[in-house]
Amino acid sequence: MSQIRYAFIVSDRTGITSESMGQALLNQFSHIEFRRSMHPFIDTVEKAEKMVAIINQAAEESAVRPLIFSSIVNDEVREVIHQSNGLHLDFFDAFIGILEEELQTEATNIVGNIHGITDEEKYHARMEAVNFSLTHDDGSTDKDMRKADVILVGVSRSGKTPTCLYLALQYGIRAANYPLTPDDLELGSSDLPRMLKPYKQKIFGLTIDPERLHHIREQRRPNSKYASIENCRSEVREAESLYRQHGIPFLSTTHKSVEELAANILLETGIKRRS
Amino acid sequence: MSQIRYAFIVSDRTGITSESMGQALLNQFSHIEFRRSMHPFIDTVEKAEKMVAIINQAAEESAVRPLIFSSIVNDEVREVIHQSNGLHLDFFDAFIGILEEELQTEATNIVGNIHGITDEEKYHARMEAVNFSLTHDDGSTDKDMRKADVILVGVSRSGKTPTCLYLALQYGIRAANYPLTPDDLELGSSDLPRMLKPYKQKIFGLTIDPERLHHIREQRRPNSKYASIENCRSEVREAESLYRQHGIPFLSTTHKSVEELAANILLETGIKRRS
Questions:
Q1: Burial of A190 (0-12, 13-18, 19+ CB in 10 A)
Q2: Which of A23, A40, A95 has the CB atom closest to B267's CB atom?
Q3: Hey, are the CB atoms on B14 and A169 less than 8 Å from each other?
Q4: Structural domains in chain A?
């Protein structure tokens, strides 16, 4: 029998919560290799029974017990998964009893819609934010710019667009972005670009390590002046100087994911989320 | 003293995992109103002590204990939060011991980077997918279309763009989209649009309730033929007929969030995620 350690992530909804949970835990055992698989929408006893058959099959093939990470609201469905030959860690099992006791009331046991459309208005606001961010990508228009929650600025390829899209999709934030071009930077850092002037309070700067920027730009336009390390150094220096001069808060995207950038921007600006 | 029930979501990283967890649990008590707040990047003893002061202040103001949902890897930091006058539910506390026993090894206790850049290559693939999806939005080009993992099709305003962006940002999937125009649909459903023909196996259809579509389009172009209920009914009918005729799988976006649509599309197509 093999020593493969199976890890099943099982959910009655999209699996986003149980996946975060499973990943966060498995990452704490990074010296072990797991064979992970995702199983969303396991929301009936029948589907749970099929799931158990799959888990038991894996258990038979391996000398070690499969792990099961789940967040299943329905007691009956969860109970079926419990019968499998794996180690079953369920998120609701662990916490719901403690909360029921503390709150002196019973959980509703309604399958959680935390990644569904529970609130039409909030969902609509998120989708509007996505549209807004797409329309206001790359300084393409200043129409309705006053409706922006935040305007990310930075040199070309510093990570503005994905960060804006993440802010919009995840938090319903209307995030515009504006590229600092060599023309903008040649002003000698004394002046903000015309389009940005009326919205100074909404501006948040991105910066990036010049070496990294050079690497990224080389993939786009190899051997160009645009991608040259000298030009990258100069653009980044001018951009940072502009931020400092105008008291614009800024972050480096070099070692940060869009998730980390978004969380930091929210924390530093205090912008209110719409989701 | 007030009866306000405070709920603090505390994390040593972005807070994405602890927020999913807190929301999933609190949603099970939807009859109670909670005053929620997010506290990401609590990653030192000093920050944890400040956090405890905030929690204790809330505890003094309220007749009921604050709830604290956290996912904090560092034992020392977690221990500080434990000292507060709230009910502290920590995700790692609940599960890590059981896993250590099962796996016969100790957790690394390294602050989880599950929403950071742990794997440069995977992160790069996600960002490339975002670029791909932006470039291939709304049928704008068929260049490199063969590199698409999936091509979402649907009538105008059926939800293609946000779903593509979510697939790209969350799962690193290169998701193109193509709008079925009245011209495409007038072909009498007998033929696929020219741009799509070579990629039939990659096509996934979206549909939407005509009433809902009418409502969405009215906000864009009030009283237009485009938005009229008759036109919406006819376009949706033709689109669904096209899907059926060509054996294209499809889903309705009417009551589904982008998270639910993405999870369903992954499940139905079996596309492999890059993240």
A1: exposed
A2: A40
A3: no
A4: 5-103 (3.40.50), 120-269 (3.40.50.300)
